[in-house]
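Question (not urgent): is this output format expected?
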Amino acid sequence: MKTHILISDDEPLTRKSLQEFLRYQGYTVTTAEDGMEAWEIMQRHSVDIVMADVKMPRLGGMDLLRKVKETYPQTQVVLMSAYGKIENAVEAMRLGACDYITKPFEDAQVKALIEKIELNNNLQPNDNGGGVLAKTKAHSPGRDKFFTVLGKDEKMQRIYAMLEAIAETPSTVLICGESGTGKRMIAQAIHRADNLRREKPFIEISCGALPETLLESELFGHVKGAFTGAIRDRAGRFELAHGGTLLLDEIDTCSPNLQVKLLRVLEDGLYERVGDIKTLKADVRVIAATNQNLEEQVKRRSFRGDLFWRLNVISINLPPLRDRVGDIPLLAYHFLEKYNLLRKQSRNGIFIEKINEEAMNAMMKYPWPGNIRELENTIERACILVKNNTVQLSDLPDSIRNYNHQPEHPDTGKSNFSLKDALKHPERDIVLNALEHTNWNCTRAAAYLGINRTTLYNKMKLYAIKRDNGRKYAAGFGLKSNDR
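Got this back:
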């Protein structure tokens, strides 16, 4: 058995050259003159990889991609185009394409791409150079129905099994995990896997990014004249998400007053727009996310217990990246593919093929306090700085290259300090890195870290973070001189 590659292109020369090259590499290759013929072939034969041109008669590449991902989600799709528009590439990736390549391309680029697909999708090479899909039960959920959520770690496999079980239920889901662990991706995966809601809107809101009065209006909407500036009626997020899914991120930041109103919506599906007496009914699946321990907040009476238990119908706890080290190579290559695609226009055609062993070992040893978000930022940085087709140790940030497994206490020079104190230092480092990366622009740094500015300011105060020139971080950020 060999990997079966289907080439769909209305240009005979492209079809012929790709077919000859890939057959020489040991693959089974079938060709189609347009997307409709390709789709008909897929009805009759098992196909592992589809390479399709974007513009074709009868059925174009984007439409073929949609049909393939809906009916054969395990099949990997590569879109090809002579017009390398970033908008098309982003749309293709959003729809589930594993890559988007611009014509003309080199044989070496195609070979590297196919080999990477084999690596990332558990294709086992055969003696002739081609591969065959290893369709294991453990592999299937993470790459098919929930194809955007990557991970082969046992902890992630348990989460995939839970997602499979809850996907088509209306139950409320609470997703917990540190910042950067992928809570938003899990919420989107649940929405896409729900056949009843997947065609309806997926709406999200960060509760911690807005003050209470504005957040209430954003959630429930308002009527004209409800408050100063309300010049027209406006629908809220619950109304916009009707029939679909609403993600309430940073749910822990909601005020007690707003928690009461959220509880009513979750219990009865009823709410009113701000300033209105008319009661509306919401048909929405609610997914809440937090990086805090809500049970502890309930004990401290900063979060309502009845709302917590209503949200906690199904709880998903995402492991930090340091607890799933085996997934680091898989995720790193996934992000490498992503930034190969998005950066190739400004990289003078350099195609980054791999991460060398020394760099990968360093990433495997690093604790990743910023989790998957930090890993993605690291790969993006490497793609910008790399000088050839391989990411090397020198292309990684100082925090990763110089990481010490047994950090010493900054005051005593000893390593026997508490776990709580020890965990503060990686967080301080990642906040510093974000500030330096954004030239100390707090708004951009907060967005880079996935937190709001107030949280960033609090962490800067907590860790006494100062600028390189000796001034306190407050200098230049609008604080009074006596605060410096």
